[in-house]
Design goal:
By secondary structure, this protein is mostly helical. Helix content is 78%, strand content 0%.
Length: 105
């Protein structure tokens, strides 16, 4: 492993990021902060892919490849989510989650 950084330390940071993202997703009512929470969850998953690949299969790049796929999917998801948020804002003049369920377009 990298000098001074153990697998456990990285997993603690990744777990904290994941649960902060879950908390933000469940508690927040603003669509932008919910999107940021989903991105935080996906980044925690990326860290897990990379650290488990480095620990279990140091000579192979499977974890890094999975990480690239997750990053690409997260970028596409963010682009679609921002487009939806902009559309909601145009029609409702706000991005509160409570208002989104009343859309009838």
């Amino acid at each position: 492993m990298i000098e001074g950084i153990e697998v456990f330390d990285v997993l603690v940071v990744s777990t904290a990021m994941f649960f902060i993202g879950i908390y933000g997703f469940m508690v927040r009512k603003n669509l932008i902060t919910i999107l940021m929470s989903v991105e935080l969850i996906l980044n925690a998953v990326n860290i897990n892919f990379v650290i488990f690949n480095k620990y279990l299969y140091p000579d192979m790049l499977q974890g890094y490849i999975f990480s690239l796929f997750v990053t690409g999917i997260a970028a596409a998801e963010a682009a679609v989510a921002i487009a939806i948020i902009l559309n909601v804002y145009r029609h409702m003049k706000g991005i509160d989650v409570e208002q989104v369920d009343t859309m009838k377009y």
